[in-house]
Amino acid sequence: MTTNNTAPLNQENSLLHDFRLDQVTVTDPYLVNAFSKEVLYLKSYDLDRLAAGFRENRGLPARGEKYPGWESTEIRGHTLGHYLSALSQAYATTRSSHLLQRLEYLIDELALCQFDSGYLSAFPEQLFDNVENRQPAWVPWYTMHKIIAGLNAAYRATGSNTAYALVTGLGNWVHRRSTGWSAEIQERVLSVEYGGMNDCLYELYTISGDERHLHVAHMFDELSLFTPVHEGRDILKGKHANTTIPKFLGALNRYRVLGESERFYLEAAQQFWDMVVLHHSYITGGNSEWEHFGDPDILDAERSNFTAETCNTYNMLKLSRELFKITGETKYMDFYENTFINAILSSQNPDTGMTMYFQPMATGYFKVYSSAFDHFWCCTGTGMESFSKLNDSLYFHGGGSIYVNQYISSTVLAEEYGIELIQTANLPYQDTAEFRIRTLKEPARPVALHLRLPDWLAGEAELTLNGQKQALNLSGRYAVLERTWSSGDTFSLRLPMKPSCHTLPDAANVAAFRYGPVVLSAALGTEELAESATGVDVSVPTRNMLVKDFITPAGQSAESWLKDFDQHFIQKDGELAFVLQGTDEDGRLEFTPHYKQHEQRYGIYWKLVEADSAELQEHILQGKQRQRVEDATIDSLPVGNDQYELEHQIKGEHTTVATWDGYNIRQAGNNGWFSYRLKVLPRQDNYLSVTYFSGNNGKTIDLYADGKLLASDTLMTDKPRSFYSKSYLLPAAAVQERTELEIKFVVPGAMNGIFDLLRLMSGFDQTAALERLSFDTGALDQPFNADRSSYTLTVPYNTQAVALTAGLSHKNALLYCGGILIDDTRPRTVFLQEDSTLLTLTVKAEDHVTAKDYTITILKNRELV
Q1: Whole-model pTM?
Q2: Which of 226, 468, 500, 607 lies at a C-alpha separation of 20 to 30 Å from 775?
């Protein structure tokens, strides 16, 4: 492999600049472990297996078997693209000859696999034809972005002529293909996820200087998206988040490459960042539910086990650091610090190095990590990249100044400034970052150090230079120390911290807690940590048990408890752990840094509600409803989502995907149709749950199960402008021994379709009964029997209250005490009247309709004391 000495174009229309990765060394033990685990993972790949699909596509003899999971599907090759980027970053940091050899081997292998046209991929070019012709294809342009980005990174890291020839040839192929697009075909291409094609092509232009690469980058700039966002209109609802974020990375790169003439694209990226961060993000910095944006400021309603896809976080951090370099605004680095710690560091298992796909924001779930060589998710790829560049955003420089943005033990060898800066920090366990200077050359010249003052500061920062306290010289939210530095100079920055409470815009009494820069979560045990799957081999956590996800303040409202939060959230002596005071959870919940929470169920967000309030009862009801749907779901897919539709073997004719009112619709018309294969339970009744929209009232849709007519339905609802679900019975006699059915939708007339989620479900249990009943005081007249509904409890005369414990025959049933819906997982205090108290317990079965009453007469016996 030879080296290309051609000077690249001048990029970076920026105020601030990166240090090279080999100039910044991280010494924080937690991050050192994270990086070392990633490098070991990169070294453990069989390179011949990674490249196998490329050789196969070129017709070359196999040297290894393709990896399974996503690497044996239509997006095979995306992992190699991520791998090249991650390996290039790890090599740029370490200058390891072993990592360089791996890069060289892959580049040489890919050179053998490139077609004369410049085309290079692990799948046939036919998939790009499918996109242009509205035929099923799993995001080939998305995969192409990963390959081009990986080759760009490999060239930047090595200067290899071979890498240069590969990526420029591939860019030329993209240009030739796109020049044949009509406006209609271009729109069709841009409607299917294409990753950051504009971003990687602008990057390629800075390497090659070839106007063809600039022109084709423009072809992937989506003005129909950029324009409304630039105008401040939040149109993100229903958009696939990790499809959308990279588009704005490309918009920003257009500005970086071409300068002020393209300011529109910078402003669009800034507006988009504000929308996502201020209106679509959780406390960790993560966003989206089931990979899609929802309504702005509707976050509590979207919390689930499918929230906060880690790829989104990776891309939002890339956007944040580039916006910071251009503008110097500290808000971008505030977000970066928060999200880096609480979402990125949080996403890696420190024992195995494996990373996460979704990061649940619903209380009671747990972290699920990738396997090393089985799944190859998109988040496996971005995980490689995230943990091979842990040092890339700690320090920046420009205008004679060095900017310290993260307080993490590390060293920056600032050769351009003649100094080495050594930082020792252990936030949040200690509140002071200490620095030592070593000069690299004489004579020294003045250098200004800008120390970021974080947005979580709980008081005034304190700066000490060579043992002497200094007045803060502020420039925005930076404390500035400027002097001619000498070897041995030391300074320290104290950053006071305290606990803080953060609610959600659509739920003023749903709170999460922080301490300084870290989000806190409470561990909820290791019971039943069973995983399930969604999409194409994506592992997700389940919650096949009832988890109490609310807190009841003692004798006060949620509002007053939150107002006096600092009196109710107490740090344990000598530990970075916090407990509650003045709630029903005192002594049970313990809150610790979430990024270190790896092997248990957890809760970040907690709903604070008053005992027996209508709001608490509604919360319990909604929780039971969600749980019963989750438990009854045999199979499901979000319609219109390519990954999930392909996993369910979509077929169809005259069918398209659109978005209406923020929800995806799979539609057809004029005898067009579409079908999926869905799992069913054999030998029992199953139910197909379909979501429709009221705007289709009067239109007909025919449903078939394995070719037999299930229903011919003329849609109708009396609810204006609303989405609603209908359930269709698949009787056991029709299902028989099958474990899968083809569900087909035929639209004989005007365009019509299905929305949002399609589910195949089992029926709800109809048993309304208590399984057990006991009291902490007194004796029942007879042992409890679920079939008997009337009892007498005798207690000592001076008893003021009894604690009732009741178990339900089904965990998703409802329990009412005196007409009040209660939490059946906790004892219930019943206050007694003077001589006798009549207590009525009502059980509603899992169907929430079938009901049974139990009555207990509680008598005070004067003879018992």
Answers
A1: 0.86
A2: 607
